[in-house]
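Tokens as discussed.
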């Protein structure tokens, strides 16, 4: 069942509820909410127009170009949110995202769904987008933990570097903590999915008329793809970052957290 533009417009009246108590308690984020809602409408409207075009065109090169744009936006957002030096982290983050997308799309679209064309826009674009979107959130948490851990615990790092038998052992506690912090929210979401929340993709398929059984199968596949994709992306981002945040003597470069 479609939703008319008039009814969709009326749905925004629900925002009056949170806005009312925000004003009552003088929480000064009402302007941010209105701007965020406006941007959401504009951005999703433009995406809807573009996706209609890209689905009808269904050109592999155009689809790949769109994925590269999404990766670029994700890398830009990660670097900006964490507060990193651009010249150090553009290549490591971009490379990690590319590799994780290739692995996940090849496996899940090629071997699980068995698409004749894994670049089919109706599968390739939204599934890759979900993986990249989730990877962005968890990468920011994990990489913030990892990189800032060196500045906040520099004495521990140099102690381990001096007393450990290898550089890999020195890095292990920092990597362990980063992966744990980065992936814990995703593990928590997986553990309660279907009990506390019904995922958006599954709900959308059911509302679109698909069988709940089919919708659940796809949701299970998507959650596995998201988790594996996030894990690979985070780990590779950490590994590739190690090549740019240390000098030849394994000392930390003192400007890698500066956002120049």
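Sequence:
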């Amino acid at each position: 069942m479609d939703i008319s533009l008039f009814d969709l417009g009326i749905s925004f009246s629900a925002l009056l509820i949170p806005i009312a108590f925000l004003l009552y308690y003088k929480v000064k984020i009402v302007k941010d909410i209105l701007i965020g809602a406006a941007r959401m409408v504009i951005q999703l409207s433009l995406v809807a127009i573009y996706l209609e075009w890209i689905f009808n065109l269904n050109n592999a090169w155009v689809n790949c170009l769109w994925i590269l744009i999404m990766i670029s936006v994700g890398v830009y957002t990660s670097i900006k949110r964490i507060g990193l030096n651009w010249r150090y982290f553009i290549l490591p983050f971009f490379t990690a995202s590319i590799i994780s997308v290739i692995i996940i799309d090849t496996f899940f679209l090629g071997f699980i769904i068995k698409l004749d064309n894994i670049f089919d826009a109706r599968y390739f674009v939204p599934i890759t987008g979900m993986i990249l979107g989730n990877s962005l959130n968890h990468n920011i948490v994990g990489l913030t933990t990892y990189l800032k851990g060196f500045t906040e615990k520099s004495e521990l790092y140099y102690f381990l570097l001096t007393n450990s038998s290898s550089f890999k052992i020195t890095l292990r506690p920092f990597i362990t903590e980063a992966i744990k912090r980065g992936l814990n929210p995703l593990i928590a979401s997986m553990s309660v999915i279907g009990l506390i929340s019904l995922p958006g993709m599954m709900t959308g398929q059911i509302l679109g008329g698909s069988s709940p059984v089919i919708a659940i199968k796809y949701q299970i596949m998507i959650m596995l793809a998201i988790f594996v994709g996030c894990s690979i992306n985070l780990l590779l981002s950490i590994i590739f970052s190690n090549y740019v945040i240390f000098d030849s003597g394994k000392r930390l470069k003192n400007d890698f957290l500066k956002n120049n």
